[in-house]
Amino acid sequence: MTPLFINTRPKHKADMNLVIHSVSLPLLAIRHFDELEQSKMQDLVDFVHGKFDTLIVVSVEAVACAVRFLKEQGIDHACDLPHHDTLTVIAVGQPTADALAEFGFSVLTPFDAGCPMSNEGMLAMPAIGELHTGDDVLIWRGVGGRRLLSDTLIKRGVNVRAIAFYERCVPSELTSDFTRLLGDSTDDSPDGTFNSNQNHQHQIGKHSPIFVLISSQMSLNAWQSVYDQQIHSHRTHTHGLLPQNVIYLTLGHRLTALTATHYPHSRAYPMVDLAESTLNQAIQDAMATYPS
User: Fold this and answer.
1) Reported pTM
2) What Å distances lie between residue 29 and 104, 194, 198, 211, CA to CA?
3) Which spans of this chain does the record mark as coiled coil (predicted)?
4) Fewest CB atoms within 10 A around its CB: which of 44, 170, 178, 223?
5) What is residue 203's predicted lDDT score, i.e. its pLDDT?
């Protein structure tokens, strides 16, 4: 039994020290916006002036982009904000919390409230549950990100504004990268997606089980776009990517349920976060029950 991990995170997040061999197949790419729409820029100005009671931040990318715009407004540290002492700041995950803390914010995470690091965990936080009609909330995110969170708050009468600092998109090279992963091409990836330390792309059929990381519904959709056509054409039988050989590591129970519904012949394991330790533990737990 020679397991393989397909790391589907964007390129700048792909470095991981895992207990099994891995290859990189980014399902999503990040594109930052150089400018904001006028209405979104006004939301940021209102934030600087203390209009919002609560700030919710969904990613490290959102922090980096927002900090750049804040510095253009003369805010070089969180303590420069007039409402710094009363502002509630919530981060989806620990890396996001760390990035916010580096700028000087005091940050809450779902983990601090004993909740999983996911959409479900964030909605279960007391700080989110206490938000009610008339409260003003600003969300820093990417285009379309965390809609469940904002939609839930809006239904409760919370005044929600969201600034999208970046967008996620499916890389144009995803199909060709997937072809290389299967070994249908002997060409090396021009941008080094597959490097000499990950020299397993032409031997994927020799691996079992094959772990696939699914961190969002958009990444699941991207995976479906390249993998499902292989199932329908039966080419997975040639390459070893049979559904029963694939184990999905999915972020949160909702995404796990979606993945399990779409791939009923594969196994899907929910994870509370994307930390290396969490991934390694999930891999070891799955391996312990995998038929030898």
Assistant:
1) 0.77
2) 28, 16, 20, 21
3) none
4) 170
5) 55
